[in-house]
Amino acid sequence: MKSQERTIRTGLHTTVRVDTMLTSALIAEYIAPSDHLWLVSPWITDVQVLDNGHGAYDALFGDVPPQNCRLSDAIARIAHGGAKIHVVTRHDAHNHDFLRRLTTAAPPERIHVAQSPNIHEKTLCGDDWMLSGSMNFTIRGMAKNDEKITYTAGSDAAAQARLDLAERWGDSA
Questions:
Q1: d(CA 153, CA 168)
Q2: Averaged pLDDT score across all residues of the chain
Q3: In this structure, are residues 162 and 125 in contact, taking their beta carbons and an 8 Å threshold?
Q4: Which of 53, 60, 66, 121 shows its CA 20 to 30 Å from the CA of 24?
């Protein structure tokens, strides 16, 4: 696969949004889950990541497709598909709803959560792709704040990131 990288800048003053890029990455993971999926963000809100209000994704989800899909639900579905999910975040009340929903919906043996008061990195990383930049996975990060996000696919960068994250936060990469 040829290496590709795309950097976008989002915010209220631009018309560029990260939603479609994130949705595409999560759908690809749902169809062909990575062995390990890392979500690293100091703050995580259980944001809506897929709007299926018009039924565009009905065939993907089968007999009972959701109308909307939140981040915890999308990641839980990826875990049910076989991925080991690693979440690194801060121990903060802001993150509790997301973590509670994720750990309730996903198989417990497929979820690894690490918490640190010093985490500031923002990355979503699969086997051969990653999103990284300044954006927290929150409503403000995805829709309001001025952010820089880089999507990288088909390079060694994702593999190196997974190794680095596993070394820092435990569990196998």
A1: 23
A2: 91
A3: yes
A4: 121
